[in-house]
Every structure is written in structure tokens, then in C-alpha cells.
Queue: 2 jobs
Job 1
Amino acid sequence: MFDQLIRSITEETPGGIGAILMGYDGIAIADYFVPGEVLDQQMVAIEYANVLKEIRNAATVLNTGDLEEVSIRTGRYCFILRAVTEEYFLGLTLLREGNFGKGRYLLRRDLERLREALV
Amino acid sequence: MFDQLIRSITEETPGGIGAILMGYDGIAIADYFVPGEVLDQQMVAIEYANVLKEIRNAATVLNTGDLEEVSIRTGRYCFILRAVTEEYFLGLTLLREGNFGKGRYLLRRDLERLREALV
């Protein structure tokens, strides 16, 4: 189920080049990367797992409510990170000119189903 | 000029509660916070300056192009952080139900003018 979900999120997002379901410890449950893409998405996911952990800690300290979503836009890519459970998050990488809104929608769409499967 | 810009970004964004122009070292040039808001926005900005620095380093290591924008959504707030120069970034805090798209637009609108003023 996880593999199929990750792949469909990537393929349904215009400009989508990869998605990953990963623990905050940097270990992935499932990932899918569009063939031929030069970016080392596994490395990206590990870096962003660390960043996400820090933002989550900051959110707790600052009492701003639970962390739900982080998006990062760089010169060439967009990354959308979505908290799923206490232990896991979803990450989607798309080209900068891809459809950010669609990617965000897809990451939210199956969230409940994913949470139930992860318990 | 900075104070006025920061204030107008906050006030023109529906749900906007504060904005800050800050160095990555955590020292602010200008800030404006809507009166009566309970969130310690100075603390928020300092925490996010650290996060932003880390994301910027990750973007360099991973060769994804320069960091442009980070947005963070929590249970109660949205934070939009926008890189301005090598040393400074703009941060906008809005209520979760505020107009995220408008805030993002406003942070971009005066970017060139701001860069010229900061050189």
C-alpha cells in the first residue's frame, strides 16, 4: 500500500520527481523516484528529516501547536514535508515550476488512511 | 523605510500578526507585531533563523539551488520565511486561517527594493 501511494503522489503531481515516507530517524518505509533524475533524493530526505525534527521541537517550545507542514522552495526544486504521525512524515520533491498546490493537496488527501495503516 | 514595509506587509495580510526583517545571526533590523498577540514572535524569529540557516546549508550541500522560501504550518499559525540577501531574511507570522497566498505575495513584492536598500 505504501509503495503504491508514494508512487501515485509523485506521478499525479505535475513536475513531481519523487516521494518518500520516512521516519524522523532518517529511515524510509517507502520511496519512489522518477527514473533519470540527478538529485540524490535519499540524501535530501535525510537532511530534511533533521530540519523537520528541529522545527517540531521549536513548535513545542514556542507553543504554536503541532507541526503540520513545511515547504521549502529553492532555485531548482520545491520540497513539501507533511507530518503524518509522531514518528513518520511524507516528503514530496517537485521541480520548481511543478504544481505545488496539487502536490500539497495529494499529501493531505490520504493522510487519514496512512495514519490508520501506520498504527 | 524598513519599519513601514514590515508594518504594511503585516497589516495587508488578512490574519497577519507580525513581520520581521532579521539577520541569520538572530538580530532584527525591523519588526512589527500586532498589539495583544500572545505569541512571543521575537523568540519565534530567532528559532526560525536557526532553522533557516540549516536549510540553507542543506540546500548548498545537496546542490538544489539557492534557498528562496520556507513556509511552516502548525496547529495555530503559519510562518513564511523569505531569503532576501546572504545575510537577511523576512519573516511573516499569520494565523492559520489567514491568507497564506497574500502573505507570500507581499513578501515577494518588495524584494528587489529591499535588496537595494540593504546593500
Job 2
Amino acid sequence: MPHQSEFDTALAVTRSGATSYDALLHDGWRIGNSVNGGLLLSLLGNALRDLCAPLGHPDPLSVSAYYLSASTAGPAVIETEVARNGKTMTTCQTSLIQAVDGVPTERLRALATYGDLGALTDAVHLTPEMPDVPPPDRCLSSADMPDTFKAAGPFLQRVDVRLDPSTAGWAIGERTAQRGAIQAWVRMPDGREPDPLLLLMMVDVLPPVTFTFGHFGWVPTLELTAHVRGRPEPGWLLVRHATRNYSGGLLEEDAEVWDSSGRLVAQSRQLARAPRRRAP
Amino acid sequence: MPHQSEFDTALAVTRSGATSYDALLHDGWRIGNSVNGGLLLSLLGNALRDLCAPLGHPDPLSVSAYYLSASTAGPAVIETEVARNGKTMTTCQTSLIQAVDGVPTERLRALATYGDLGALTDAVHLTPEMPDVPPPDRCLSSADMPDTFKAAGPFLQRVDVRLDPSTAGWAIGERTAQRGAIQAWVRMPDGREPDPLLLLMMVDVLPPVTFTFGHFGWVPTLELTAHVRGRPEPGWLLVRHATRNYSGGLLEEDAEVWDSSGRLVAQSRQLARAPRRRAP
């Protein structure tokens, strides 16, 4: 039996009722005070996959999550509900709940539409080219980043990130050439290949684009919507995060993810709170 | 007593229980087979405003709506729920429900976070400039569009739309210079000035960007998330719709809305189904 990847271990859910699941959050996926928000999206996505796959709709097409409180290592319960089961899509809802001093506390609530990515047409009327980024071995590896960054949490060892040098000046104490954008090759260190569930995490794995402004504080996600547009090919993914509107104490951050064939396979946008602390 | 605008009339809700409201959808806001999706967002936004304003959070910061079935003229019920009431924000949920042959049928389900736009900081680290568009009187008025377009529904008379000629070739039978984007000045014909609730509608008032490809069929929204980033100044709004990924029978469509002072006051992204019919 093949060894299970650590990502699939983290995504494991056990059905505990008609529409509820048990899960276990691991401290190894923590960044700052919370389990990585992208991993939580993948976890909820896996429970919804279990719910929607028997309806013929195994793939997340769109997931919109509202982050209510910081998730911590330990047991969690996932509640799910089908809102509408249509011919080509199922729309559903889910919540992630943890007990805090015995009180059930909601961490995330999400709406999602599932379908069958394999049933989509091949038509391409317009799609963005993959950005021109040096190959992974000529990028800045997350493993080589200063210890002050790596101290942010063990999540940084979970994903192999290779930052495009033109968007990574902040990581080596220099002014960043491209402010407001970060690009990187990403893959799982244990060889776990990308699929739609991994894409849900990959839209939130890079450092926040506020780092390119020299603003190194915590940037909590308020809302994140991910659209999965295709089943990715094996190999490296290229992820680009960018903001257009960083103002008023908030920012939107868009992610685009291309697979190794150069196809845009996921897009996301989040609304996040700007960092309150500026020092690393 | 001042005359109530037709937008505010359409948004009227009457509390019918602790967390439920009655509303009436008017045929005058129909486009195609359904009431305009942006108006429905404003309507749900108004019910949530009633719920969240007493908690100190009168303004929508983020609203994510999943469109489940086509809304029709007639009575509707709006159910609401507070998911989390925090110090600076309240996250809530809402559903729009109509009876179909006596069976309650859900039209939209949405998650939203409300706050106080007046309490945001003035900091601007990055924000996009308003696009350079000719003044409204040198743009193509929606009132001058061919009757084949106006036949799509009475909604087209509800909003005064002035299309940037460089993105409107499709409306006069010419090839569009900028494929994948539509820009226009918009305002309410009866002088109703913009506010955060009107912005929720304004992110979905322009024709779909698929028109710039000569694809004139119906483009149903699956999911739409709007972020309101500021209280708009009175006057014309400039709205830009653009897609980057129109493929596989789906497209994402982003909207950006600038107020008359040139400030970006709203952003949105929707996932929509590509048109199946190509003829107008």
C-alpha cells in the first residue's frame, strides 16, 4: 500500500452522521496563530467532495469561505448541507467547528458549487499566459529564507516554494522590484501531485503581497473565494498573488495558479485585513 | 416627504419575524428570465443592513452570493442569521426564497461580512487609476442601443448606462476594439445617488463581457462576490467589467467601480456560465 502523503493525512475526514464529519487539525500546518487558511479550504473541500461525488459532482468549481475565528491544532467537526442538487452542479454549505472550553466555536463557514471538471468543454476564448519566471532552481527557495520568516510557523516547511527573485526582494532585505505581486513555483515536498483539492490550498500558500511593501505583520483573511477551472497536470504549479487595491486598512489579493502544461487551473480572490504591525 | 427612488422601492423589506423579512420582486427589474442578479444582491444587502446596523456594522464589506434558481416577479421571503458578531465586523448569512407552486424554493444563498466603512483608515498604499473614458455625453447611451438588445428585459431602462465606445463595438454591429472588457459610466435615471447598497447592484449592471466576443447568449451567474471598499461620492460611477479566463464553458468576470472623485469604491468577481446560444 503506498505511503499516504501528509497533505492527504491532513485532509482525512470520517463521516460521523448523515451530513457531519470528524477531522483533526495538525499543528504542523500552523502559520502564526492559526492553521493555514488554504489547508482549511482543502479540508472543507474534501468533506464536500464526499458529499457531492455520489451526486455526480466530485470537483469544486467555486468555494467561498468566511473566516470567523482562528483554527487551532486539535479535533474539529465539519457540518455540511446540500442547498441545491442540479443536473450539472450541486451547491452546498459547510462549517468548521471546534470546541473552545467546551463551547462549539465556528471557525469557517463556506458556500460552494461542485461539478465535474472532466465534463467541461475544451473551448478557450481567452486565458492569461503563465508569467515568465526563472526555473525553480534559479528561484529563492523558502528553505533559504531568513530564520525570522521561518519562525512564523511550521507550515512553511509543508510546501516547497521557489520565489521569483523579481518579486522576492523583501525576503533578503532589499526593495522589491515588483510591488504588490509575488510569484513562485510551488509543489509538495513529498511528491504529492496536484489535484483540485490541492489547488484550494495553493491559492493561499504564498506570503501576503503586503510583504512587498515592507509591511510584515499578520494579514488575516476575511473572505476567500476560489474558482477551480481545470484538473491540473502533475509537476510544479506556478502561483501568482497580486493586489490592485491596498487601502483603507484592507486589501484584495488575487491568486492565479498555472499547472506544468501552462494552463490556468485556478483563480482566487480574498479580502484581507492590512497588517497592523509593520516590523518583521 | 421626498419621492422615494425606484431603487429604494425595490429594496424595501418588512421584518416578519426575529430574523426574517418580506420583500416584493418587481417585473421592472427583470432581464431575460430573471430579476437582475445585482438588484437581488442589493435587496439581500438591505435586509442584512437592517440586521447588522444595530450591531454597529451598517455597511457591506464583502458579500458572496450563490445563485440557485431564477427569481421571478412576486413576493419573496428573506431569511437571515448572524454567524459571528465581532468588535469591528459581523458575519452573517441570508437566503432569498420564493414559493413555486406552493413549494418554498431558494433563489440565492449568501454569506456576508458587515462593518463600518466610515471607520476605515485613509491609508492608500496602492489603488488603480480610473480608466480614461470619454465623458458620458460622448459615450454610447443604453437608450440608443438596438431594439434587439433592449428586448432582453425592462431592467435595461432602470439604469442609465453610457458605454465607452472602445468597448462597445458589439452594440453597433462592429468588431470590438478591446475584447474581454466593457467600460461604462452608470447612474440611476431618477437621480438616486450611489451608496454601498447601490454599489452591490452596480457590479452586475453591464452586459456580459462575452458580448465583446460576439457571443450574445444568456450568461447566468453561478457565484458573485462583491467587496465594497468605500462610501461613494454623489455623481456618475465608472464601471469596468473584464475577464481573463473565458474557457471550458465558464468565465470569471471582474468588476471595478470608481466614484466621481476617482476612488475605487467596489470590486467584484463572478463565475458565470458561458453562453450556449451564440446569436443575438
